[in-house]
Each structure stands twice: as C-alpha cells, then as structure tokens.
Design goal:
By secondary structure, this protein is α+β, with helices and mostly antiparallel strands. The protein is built from six helices and 26 strands.
Length: 369
C-alpha cells in the first residue's frame, strides 16, 4: 500500500472513524483502524462490534493494499504533523511509514484479514431517506431522554417507529419521555430500537459530513445501515420490546398554559441556583390566574420568579426537577410552549403549541408540606 494524502483531509476522516474504536477490548485488531487503498480511494474502517464505520476519501494512490494500524498512535501522529501532503506506505510484512518534508515515522501494523468484515447492504432492502438536518434534529430532541444506565435494559435505546403517515422517535428513562414525529409516507409499519449513545454518535458523524445531501437509513433484521455520501455506519439493534409509550401519555388536562420559552428558561435557570431542597433539584410552579410563579429554596436562601402566561383551567401547584424541564426547553426551538397539567402528582406535558410534532412528558417531584 502506498499513497499521498493531505493532512487535513486525513485528520477529518480519522475523527469520524475513531468514534467506533474501543480501548475496552482484549481483541487487538478492534483497537485499530483498517486502511484499505483501491484505485485512488482510501477507506478507513473501525468497529467495536456495536457500531462499525467506513469513511472513504480520495488520495493519490500508487499501490493498492490494506493494513490495520493502531488507532490511537496513528491518530496522534497524523494530528501532530504539519498541514501538508503526507506519504504513507507499508504492508503487513514491513512497518507502515508516515513521511512528510521533515518527519518520518515507522509503526507496526496488523494483518487486514483479522479485521471484522463490514456487512454489505442488500440492495433490495427498503430505504428511509432523510434530510441530514431533519435526522440530526430528531436525534437531538429525543436521545437525551433515554436512560444512561446500562442496567435499565431496553430504555437505554431510542425507538424508531414507522407508521403510515409518520416516523416517530421515542426515548424515556422512567422520569421523562420524549416523542418526536416527522411526517413521512411509509409502506411498511415497523419498530426498531437503537442505543441512544450510538444515535448521538450518528448525529456527530452527520455533522462532520461535508455538503447538504441526504441520509439513507436501511433497516435489516438485527442492524441498521446509515449511508451518507462518503461514510457508511452499521449499528447493531437492541433486542427486546419497547415500553408501550402511547399508554403513558396522559388523557386528562385540567390546566393548560402558554408560556414564552426564553422567559421560562431564564427563570428556571435562576431558580435552580437555590434548588437544593431534598437534593432533587426541586423548583415549584404555582399557576394562578395569568401568572406562573417559580420558587425554590435551600439552606442558603430562596428565590421567586414570576412570568405572565396564558392560562386555561384550574390553578395548580406542582414541583419538578429543574434539570428535566431545562433539558426539554433547550431541545425545542419554538418561542412559545404549551404546557398541560392534570394534578400535582400527574406528569406534565410540554408540546408544540399548534401541532403534534413533539411531546415531552415529565414526572413531578412531590412537594413536602
């Protein structure tokens, strides 16, 4: 294998594939990046068996070949080199040489045959096509609500649900739930579950892919393919039955308010400075007439914030973990939020004021006294 490549281009490709490199393995080849050169195209591949990534870049190739190289060492070297063309050559019999005008490295590689083969895409499989920004936005609005504890089982994942008129993404962790809907005609109705951690990595990869373009998602029995212009990602699906989230969505709505998102965020952020009561980040909402009063207290003091709102229904006093409310507020882009309540011990719903594009459910914190 022998080729010349621009340093900046190679650094960006390494950044992308490094997301699937793991140090927590006893299999040496999984700590590496597979370099495959064929007809002026260099493909960098990585896998931790949960997520596999291929990134292809154009180089000036002189001799085709393949070799696995230590991801950390290769990455560290390439990043430290000056922004100029790099000559790289070697094979499994000879150390890989990395050479610039004033630097030269020689590092030992591993046989490419030992690297896990990237699963090929079956052409007849149905594709879901997204605008890049739409898929990123759906991930941003849901993945944060999934559980971060591996012991919680299936709720560490994000549900992708295809219905006739919509594609839904759902995530929950036992304290909150996020539901985001995108209008989409689907011939087939089905559900898959992908680790929220892997979905966040997909979002980063989409951000790094240059150009506007589209994203293709191809569903298989136990995996999903994410295909961009120069990058392919294969994710292993989570197995199990997702919680029947539609049964959780509250039916009764005794109190509804419309509130300015920015005012609400700023008020909660200030109130959170003193929300230490019971160590559950408690902030209290008191809804009366056309006013939302937010209070919190700790050993150091207390705070009261007031926001003018539009209200329909009954007055209410309810407590929340401020972090869960703020996570939702930061995820949505609308100037006005619709918040629906039933009782002080029932979940709050935060919704789009005019359509069902998203719904967030947040469990309240019991207020003592």
């Amino acid at each position: 294998m022998k080729f010349i490549c621009d340093q900046n281009t190679l650094v960006k490709a390494i950044n992308t594939v490094s997301k699937a490199v793991t140090s927590r393995t006893t299999i040496p080849v999984l700590k590496g990046i597979l370099l495959t050169l064929k007809e002026n195209q260099l493909t960098l591949s990585s896998s931790d068996l949960e997520i596999s990534i291929e990134k292809t870049i154009f180089v000036k190739g002189e001799e085709d070949g393949a070799l696995v190289i230590s991801a950390k060492l290769f990455s560290d070297i390439i990043r430290k080199l000056p922004s100029e063309d790099i000559l790289i050559y070697g094979d499994e019999k000879e150390p890989l040489t990395i050479k610039t005008t004033h630097s030269e490295f020689h590092i030992v590689g591993l046989n490419a045959e030992e690297f896990p083969k990237m699963v090929s895409i079956e052409e007849e499989k149905e594709k879901i096509v997204f605008e890049k920004e739409i898929l990123k936005d759906m991930i941003r609005k849901t993945a944060f609500s999934a559980s971060m504890e591996e012991s919680k089982g299936i709720i560490v994942g994000v549900l992708l649900e295809r219905e006739k008129e919509f594609l839904n993404m759902v995530a929950l962790d036992g304290f909150r739930m996020a539901v985001v809907r995108q209008e989409m005609k689907n011939e087939k109705e089905e559900k898959i579950i992908i680790s929220a951690k892997l979905m966040n990595e997909v979002s980063k990869i989409i951000s790094e892919e240059e150009g506007e373009g589209k994203v293709e998602m191809i569903l298989d029995n136990k995996k999903v393919f994410i295909v961009l212009e120069s990058t392919k990602v294969v994710l292993r699906l989570l197995e199990g039955e997702f919680i029947k989230y539609k049964d959780i969505l509250p039916k009764d709505k005794k109190t509804k308010i419309m509130v300015n998102k920015n005012l609400l965020q700023e008020a909660i952020e200030r109130a959170s400075l003193l929300s230490r009561e019971g160590k559950n980040n408690l902030v209290k909402f008191t809804i009366t007439d056309q006013l939302l009063t937010i209070t919190s207290k700790s050993e150091e003091g207390n705070v009261k914030e007031e926001i003018v709102i539009e209200k329909a229904g009954e007055n209410l006093e309810i407590g929340f973990n401020h972090k869960y409310i703020l996570d939702v507020i930061k995820a949505v882009d609308d100037e006005t939020l619709l918040m629906e309540y039933n009782t002080p011990t029932s979940p709050c719903m935060i919704k789009h004021p005019e359509n069902n594009g998203y719904e967030y459910l947040i469990l309240p914190v019991r207020i003592n006294g």
